[in-house]
Amino acid sequence: MPRVVARAKRGEVSSHGNVVYLIDDVHVVQYSMSGGLPVNLTTQYLKVLPNADRFTTDRPVVLTQGTDVVTGDAMAVDGKKQTLQLSGSVKGTYETNH
Asked: In this predicted structure, what is the pLDDT of residue 96?
């Protein structure tokens, strides 16, 4: 399982501990297990369901990996299914090495 580090200006945990809310200047980094470039995620709000391995945001999000950048108006990630869904105005810039 890749190492993931998250930080935000503020965080809240539900009374049962099954939902974590990261609020304001949220930054998540997923490090590659194979030594590749990390994936960086920035947004203003992130709802994390740790037991379900899911997280969502209904706010604009920016994903970067090296010089590659993808943006969207909202995002849903399911770690168990290994899916990431961006919605709204989705744009991406990918650079290839020649």
From this structure: 81
